[in-house]
Amino acid sequence: MKRMLLNGVVFSALAVAAGGWLAETDQAQAAAAAKMPMFEVVKDWPKLPANMKVGDASSFAIDAQDNVWMIHRPHTLKGDAQKMAAKPVVVFSPAGDVVKQWGGEAQGYEWPQREHGIFIDYQGNVWLGGNNCPGNGAPTKPVNDDQLLKFSQDGRFLLQIGKVNGSKGNSDTGNLHRPADAQVYQPTNELFVADGYGNDRVIVFDANTGAYKRMWGAFGKAAKDEDSCEVATPRTFASPGPDNFNVVHAIRVSKDGTVYVADRENRRVQVFDMQGKYINQIIRTDVLFARNLALSPDPEQQYLYVGGGKGVFVVDRKSLAIVGSIEPAGIVGPGHQINVDSKGNLYIAATGMGMQKLAYKGMSK
Q1: DSSP string covering 259-312
Q2: Scanning 157, 194, 196, 220, which has its CA 20 to 30 A from the CA of 148?
């Protein structure tokens, strides 16, 4: 595979689109002609006080002021660090200063045992969930995180969808099963959930009431139950891939109502319309792919960012062609979950490898 490096962006001469391989010559020409978003690692971000420790950084959300909301796992801290553990939700300014922190178990709701995803909707509400499983070996309660929680930005509880240990499988319309990610789509006020580690589906709820709307699995079909605490990692891959998702790890809905789903262990991103009709997919079998998703903040949302390989792949959203990879010096890798602020800066939550801000440096010449 031919590769070209320019200011932290790797241009690849091989890509996957529409479930098949693009010709190297065609893709090389596209990559050479493409203007690419450029990034560099911001050192010493964030700025944690000496008396504050954070565990595995699982996910980032961005609010309307470009503050960065992190959800982390305090239970992963050891020894004396546990005594200085920050609350599970920590808010940073764009510069990396701590603004506030909150979260954890309290009366009135069921806090997730293994914090996983966080999202802030257009009304400023904070959505979060977890992926705990009784057999994961973590020092947490032996329960399944089968719920999503909704809070105000000051930590006031608003809504819970699903119950701990409530899941009855992929046909259950009232519970999640270790959900990984979520996003509210403003025009319809619908909550789209990547559900996730225990289930193998996308499920949609009314964002105000939590009422069930619809759901679908891979290729828009009904999901089959394949529940296990252990993540099954295939050793071989063949396009178009299995009829079931395998860890629905991230979800993004673009402004035009296109739904992008990261099917992590199958190394593919599948594309749907709002109703769950399958449109297309992009698959990479040679490297880890579809770890996470983010959309570029330009009006057309030209790029879909997809964690994989040594960094974050840049995908032309319309053609699904991979036109490059973000790999600036010092990057922690593809990360666990990623997000982008209004200025184009990229944030990587990398669990055991920490967290990172990549500053957007404009477009390549």
Answers
A1: EEEEEGGGTEEEEE-TT--EEEEEE--SS---S-EEE--STT--EEEEEETTEE
A2: 220
- In angstroms, the CA 201 to CA 232 distance is 16
Q: pLDDT tens-digit profile of 84-136? A: 999 999 999 999 999 999 999 999 999 999 999 999 999 999 999 999 999 88
Tokens of 353: 């490898």
From residue 257, how far is each of 10, 270, 273, 290 by CA, in Å? 29, 14, 7, 20
Tokens linked to 76: 């992963």
Whole-number pLDDT of residue 17: 42
Identify the CA nearest to 298 among candidates 287, 314, 313.
314
Q: Which domains does the chain have, with CATH numbers?
A: 50-303 (2.120.10.30)
Are 11 and 326 contacting, i.e. CB atoms less than 8 angstroms apart? Answer: no
Tokens (6 digits) for 41: 């690692």
Residue 198 Cα distances to 138, 147, 246, angstroms: 17, 12, 9
Show the tokens assigned to 161: 């969808």
The amino acid at residue 34 is A
How many Å apart are CA 246 and CA 244, to the nearest integer? 6
DSSP secondary structure code for residue 197 in this structure: S
Calculate mean pLDDT across residues 62-68.
Answer: 98
Partnered with residue 287 across adjacent β-strands are none
Q: pLDDT, tens digit, for every residue of 260-319?
A: 999 999 999 999 999 999 999 999 999 999 999 999 999 999 999 999 999 999 999 999
**Which residue is it, tokens 């990396």?**
96
- Provide the β-strand partners of residue 269: 262, 282
Residue 14 exposed, middle or buried by CB count within 10 Å (0-12, 13-18, 19+): middle
- Give CA separation, 285 vs 229, 290, 326, 331, in Å: 24, 10, 19, 22
Pairing of strands 157-161, 181-185: unpaired
Q: What is the side-by-side order of every strand in the sheet holding 248-253?
A: 248-253, 259-263, 268-272, 278-283
Give the tokens for residue 170: 């992929």
